[in-house]
Amino acid sequence: MVTNKATLLALPTEILALLPQHLTNIKDFKELSSTCRRLRETCFLTSPNTILRLAAASSRIFFRPDPYFLVAATAKQIGDWAIPNEQNTARLRSALMDGIDGLLALCVEEAGLTMDDIRRLHASRFTTFNPVIDLIDRCAGEQSYGVEDFRNGGRSDAETIDCDPERALFEMAIYGSLFQSTLEANHDHRKGLELDIRLDFIKYCIPDSKCRNYRGFTVEMMGPYKPGVGHANPRIDQYSIRHILKSSKWKVAWEDVRKAIGPDFDDERRQRIWASAVQMKGLEVFDMLRPDWAERWSARLRELRQLIERIDVSSMQATEQDLHGVIDWMAFPIMEDDIQCCVRGRWWLSKLRIFSPIYCRFG
Length: 363
Description:
Layout: H1 4-9, H2 13-16, H3 26-33, H4 37-43, H5 48-57, H6 59-62, H7 68-82, H8 86-96, H9 99-110, H10 115-140, H11 150-154, H12 165-178, H13 180-187, H14 195-205, H15 237-246, H16 248-261, H17 268-278, H18 294-309, E1 311-312, E2 317-322, H19 335-343, E3 351-356, E4 361-362
Antiparallel strand pairs: 1-4, 2-3
Helix pairs in contact: 5-9, 7-9, 7-12, 8-9, 10-12, 14-19, 15-19, 16-18, 17-18
């Protein structure tokens, strides 16, 4: 008598390789690959896109914070996919306006993960992500309030911030991953993703109750801003990240990394590009905040610094723009500036210092 198991294993490998496409989630995939050696070897043939789809189905259980973990893991692929094609860019912008869930849906359609990627990311949670989340908590979370005389000089940047440190880490990582290709395109004299797409990401994927319309800047009632969505528990994620990026503890941590590579640039514009570019590496960037980072990153950062050293900043003259005037911004992604653009309507400031023109040249 022939058993079902024998019948299944007698199928050609090409047929067995189709099985993961009919599974429900990543747990089913793990159980299938653990059944026997033949099926385990067959599961190695599963496409990264199928693995990502199965992971997304288990996102709330195994890939928290949901959906930020999986988006951060695959956003670099979406940035690479979107840049050379106007149709892809339009699809990206449409997905962004549906919020972080819309961006995950696009990642599931166009990106992928391997099981090695998943294992590496989960290992990084303990060695890298958790220590940086603790740093963020000391910058803007509950730990920051534990400083003695918090409001009376104990903190130079004392401010009450409703910050979720874990979510903030992944939001910053997604920005770095999604627009890393834009930074690289600028280095190679190519056009990256436009400012409007960066602002759409900030507006809709990092929601903030104070992100509001002003002349030249519109927030559509879509994604997280749909009536009823987030109304009971409004978030201020943009402002929280802005506070983190300006925090003295955060700045000192990254200054130590940059100084190990070379001195600061005398030109303020070049220095701001350098400071931002160091942090534009997605989730892996936080590995630089580990004590043993230098051996893994020094060569790559020296190469990046040399590229920035060759930027022609002579045409990037500092200008003063009225608060509600026309926005003119840099092609180089700088998250702090992009967030400032999105939440600047909440302040009484009358002017904002920015740089123009949008595109720069290399010497």
